[in-house]
Structure to design on (969 residues):
């Protein structure tokens, strides 16, 4: 993977976790997919076993982290939810049973909702969550 | 071969003594050594009365019979290593024949050091067996009489400094064993830091419950064995273990706890308001106050620094007017008394690190930056907010909380160690808040989450709360946003690799534990116990001001025999470990006081007592400098005066004394030199003597020889010593001037840090290395290469290496050639007075 010069320039000076935290989506996410993924302790077993992690660095560990912090805009800039082929290696090896493969699939759903300009998907997800 | 005249025998009466040599005929010996021939040779040794064969080294019937019938006076058992046999032999034989000194029984290791060491060279093995028997016959002849054990007066009373959970636990244990206990507490109540906590793990118990339970067990007011002094301090501790003297001052409480009903009327009328130290300054208290809801003693106390009436008599006195029971006496005076105690337990506990030193984290600058101990008070039901989390300065519930871990810990500028409990404490607090306020977001900045042991489950549990977020990064700045008034915490998220910021309305700094002994060094600590306490524990903060101990071999014991430490005075620990160490310390103290144990630990009954020949002493004070255990004081003439009760029999002073004026009965110049001088000097072959620390190197060598390794034939004698620091340089120079070609010293691993230093006696190898360094000049003057003396650090697990080390040294000596002193017919120097003299 070639690294562009831009990669060396900082993206935003400081990432404001409080501002970026998408509370509405985060709560919906937890309600829909469970809280177990938050047990992730960033040990990176999933990255070691993921056959795709040499294409997308930090996959799926970083996605777990960002989802746990509710930073869905950051996830939207990543490829990992889209290229994950659900081989389930990460979930099988996770020492805390945080089930990363499930979260990547879930993030695909969330991202679809975020991309949908009509807002219908989002409403479906949030709506179902409200039940 | 040149026969060395043994001058020792001519000057002492020991040439009269009759020695019996008992050669073990186990297969390991007889396979290599011709024992019949050996017996013939041994008979020719001066002083040997009879030689007999025994079936094993544990077969003492015949020896006891011979001793009882006065056929012999001293015993040498030639067989296994003394490490296996010596203690049993001495114990059984002296039990049967009580008028025999234990030192009159020796074990010559002909199995390890002769049969196994030279298993491929029968002739050399035969020779070595004879050498060893000769050496130990000489040694046993030079040994003096000591009784089996000595009686020591012990006071059946213990002093516990500090009445926190550790101190109280130790007190309960000691009282259970029937020992009188005096507990001295500086604060006006017992319970220490634990009563200030909201909850403590692992069961999330309320602290009041724990303290109530312990006080119930103590039956503190009714138990005649226990005396608790609150508002008191220890001024001085001096004397010897078993019989310390402690000076205690009880400061006035100004309220009689027997009369006070704790009705609180006095506090209502008191006009003075000061910050409450029980709540770490989060609330106010009056100058007369009840320390907390469940204070023991349950009585008010007057703070003399803030009371108007005490500062300026006649100006107030309102509390005296309202008190129904007349308990208040503002004219009470402090009283001092002295008490004799057998042992001391230091349970002085900890203080939180001063967060004002963490300027970058905004403590003291913003009221809503607090420490973890203050958070603990906010969560406590008896706290300033009755258990509700209310942000100080804002007066409302927090919406976003940031915990900053390692606020000062693991930082060379503040506390270089990990405080052990802060991670678990923060996780505990976060879970409590997450449960009470599910809408509050909690961010935890950490370097590593060190929730050791089962606390890992708490950590996992905390992660599963939707409102708890862990961010791996060390927070480096806390600032206030001028627009919104919120606090902003900056850090680098090392997992994301990006700088991040979090907004918060409450920031909690997880400050570390500092030993109370560092924060307010008490007077007894600075001067009372001994010169070296101050020097070693305060000026050389090797253990970061925690009490220094040999954690495994002499657990809970400080460097002063009879003084034990427990709880957070030892190292940062949680409540359960604190209680466990208190039990351990009480156990150790009880063994000193009750004196039942007859083990390595009971130095008090050990008859091996250091002796000083003042006629040789030059008052150079080396012994007082080098003794690791503060054994020495000075007598009225300025000579060092050892205290046998503090002494741990390491012999470092014996090794230190340049005038060889000091001796231990089981390790002294006469014993060692008689062994060395019993060996024949060979004019054509190099000869090497090895001194080995009995605990590490000697044992390691035993293992190596058992495994089939062999020694080079040049090794003449391996002498076990209690510590390598106990080898006197005079013995080394004398051995060299006698004509021995090399002296190898095998000590254990040394070093400044706890992790590398292994010596039981703290710095034996370090001292020995310095002495060898200083010896270089002397050796050069004697025209001897300084390289002929070498110290190597060997630990017990180095048995794969130890023989190689000896082989290398022998090779080095061979390259150097023979010792030039050999030509003086072995010991010419000695006869003419430079070198060792009796």
């Amino acid at each position: 993977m070639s690294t562009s010069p831009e990669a060396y320039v900082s993206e935003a000076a400081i990432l404001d976790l409080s501002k970026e935290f998408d509370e509405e989506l985060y709560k919906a996410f937890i309600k829909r997919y469970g809280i177990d993924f938050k047990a992730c302790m960033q040990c990176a077993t999933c990255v070691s076993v993921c056959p795709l992690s040499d294409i997308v660095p930090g996959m799926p560990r970083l996605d777990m982290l960002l989802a746990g912090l509710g930073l869905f805009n950051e996830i939207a800039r990543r490829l990992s939810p889209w290229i994950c082929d659900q081989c389930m290696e990460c979930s099988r090896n996770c020492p805390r049973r945080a089930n990363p493969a499930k979260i990547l699939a879930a993030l695909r759903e969330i991202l679809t909702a975020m991309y949908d300009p009509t807002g219908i998907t989002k409403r479906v997800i949030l709506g179902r969550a409200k039940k | 071969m040149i026969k060395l005249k043994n001058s020792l025998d001519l000057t002492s009466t020991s040439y009269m003594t009759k020695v019996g040599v008992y050669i073990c005929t186990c297969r390991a010996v007889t396979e290599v050594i011709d024992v019949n021939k050996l017996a013939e040779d041994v008979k020719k040794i001066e002083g040997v009365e009879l030689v007999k064969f025994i079936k094993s080294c544990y077969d003492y019937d015949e020896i006891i019979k011979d001793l009882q019938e006065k056929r012999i006076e001293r015993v040498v058992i030639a067989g296994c290593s003394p490490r296996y046999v010596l203690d049993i032999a001495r114990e059984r034989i002296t039990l049967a024949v009580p008028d025999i000194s234990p030192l009159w029984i020796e074990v010559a290791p002909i199995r390890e050091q002769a049969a196994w060491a030279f298993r491929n060279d029968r002739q050399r093995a035969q020779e070595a067996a004879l050498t060893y028997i000769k050496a130990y016959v000489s040694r046993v002849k030079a040994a003096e009489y000591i009784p089996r054990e000595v009686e020591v007066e012990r006071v059946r009373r213990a002093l516990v400094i500090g009445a926190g959970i550790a101190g109280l636990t130790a007190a309960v244990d000691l009282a259970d064993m029937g020992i009188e206990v005096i507990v001295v507490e500086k604060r006006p109540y017992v319970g220490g830091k634990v009563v200030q906590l909201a909850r403590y793990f692992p069961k999330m118990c309320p602290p009041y419950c724990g303290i109530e339970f312990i006080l119930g067990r103590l039956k503190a007011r009714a138990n005649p064995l226990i005396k608790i002094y609150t508002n008191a301090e220890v001024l001085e501790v001096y004397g010897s273990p078993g019989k310390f003297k402690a000076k205690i001052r009880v400061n006035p409480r100004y309220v009689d706890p027997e009369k006070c009903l704790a009705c609180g009327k006095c506090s209502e009328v008191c006009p003075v308001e000061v910050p409450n130290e029980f709540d770490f300054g989060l609330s106010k208290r009056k100058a007369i106050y009840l320390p907390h809801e469940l204070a023991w003693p349950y009585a008010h106390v007057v703070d003399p620094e803030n009371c108007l009436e005490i500062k300026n008599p006649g100006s107030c006195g309102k509390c005296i007017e309202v008190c129904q029971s007349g308990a208040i006496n503002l004219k009470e005076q402090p009283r001092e008394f002295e008490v004799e105690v057998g042992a001391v337990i230091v349970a002085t506990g900890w203080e939180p690190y001063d967060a004002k030193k963490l300027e970058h984290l905004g403590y003291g600058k913003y009221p809503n930056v607090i420490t973890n101990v203050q958070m603990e008070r906010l969560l406590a039901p008896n706290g300033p907010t009755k258990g509700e989390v209310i942000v100080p300065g804002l007066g409302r519930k927090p919406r976003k909380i940031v915990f900053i871990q390692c606020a000062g810990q693991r930082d060379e500028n503040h506390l270089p160690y990990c405080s052990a409990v802060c991670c678990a404490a923060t996780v505990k607090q976060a879970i409590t808040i997450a449960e009470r306020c599910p809408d509050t977001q909690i961010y935890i900045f950490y370097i590593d989450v060190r929730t050791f042991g089962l606390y890992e489950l708490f950590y996992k549990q905390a992660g599963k709360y939707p409102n708890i977020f862990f961010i791996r990064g060390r927070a480096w700045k806390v600032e206030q946003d001028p627009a919104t008034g919120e606090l902003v915490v900056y850090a680098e998220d090392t997992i994301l690799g990006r700088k991040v910021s979090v907004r918060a309305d409450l920031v909690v700094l997880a400050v570390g534990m500092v030993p109370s002994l560092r924060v307010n060094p008490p007077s007894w600590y600075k001067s009372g116990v001994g010169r070296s306490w101050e020097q070693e524990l305060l000026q050389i903060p090797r253990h970061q001001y925690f009490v220094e101990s040999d954690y495994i071999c002499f657990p809970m014991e400080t460097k002063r025999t009879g003084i034990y430490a427990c709880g957070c005075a030892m190292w940062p620990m949680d409540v359960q470990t604190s209680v466990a160490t208190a039990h351990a310390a009480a156990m150790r103290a009880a063994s000193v006081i009750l004196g039942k144990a007859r083990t390595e630990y009971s130095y008090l009954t050990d008859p091996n007592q250091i002796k000083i020949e003042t006629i040789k002493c030059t008052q150079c004070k080396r012994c007082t400098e080098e003794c690791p255990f503060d054994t020495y004081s000075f007598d009225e003439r300025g000579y060092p005066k050892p205290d046998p009760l503090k002494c741990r029999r390491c012999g470092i002073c014996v090794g230190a004394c340049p005038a060889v004026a000091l001796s231990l009965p089981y390790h002294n110049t006469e014993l060692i030199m008689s062994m060395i001088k019993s060996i024949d000097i060979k004019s054509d072959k190099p000869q090497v003597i090895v001194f080995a620390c009995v605990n590490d190197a000697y044992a390691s060598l035993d293992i190596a020889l058992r495994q089939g390794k062999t020694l080079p034939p040049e090794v003449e004698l391996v002498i076990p010593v209690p510590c390598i620091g106990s080898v006197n340089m005079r013995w080394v120079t004398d051995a060299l001037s006698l004509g021995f070609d090399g002296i190898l010293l095998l000590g254990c691993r040394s070093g400044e840090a706890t992790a590398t230093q292994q010596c039981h006696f703290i710095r034996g190898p370090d001292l020995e290395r310095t002495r060898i360094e200083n010896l270089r000049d002397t050796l050069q003057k004697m025209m001897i290469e300084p390289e002929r003396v070498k110290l190597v650090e060997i630990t017990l697990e180095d048995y794969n290496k130890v023989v190689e080390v000896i082989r290398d040294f022998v090779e080095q000596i061979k390259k150097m050639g023979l010792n030039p002193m050999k030509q003086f017919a072995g010991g010419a120097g000695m006869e003419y007075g430079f070198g060792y003299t009796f």
Notes: Strands of chain A lie at 15-16.
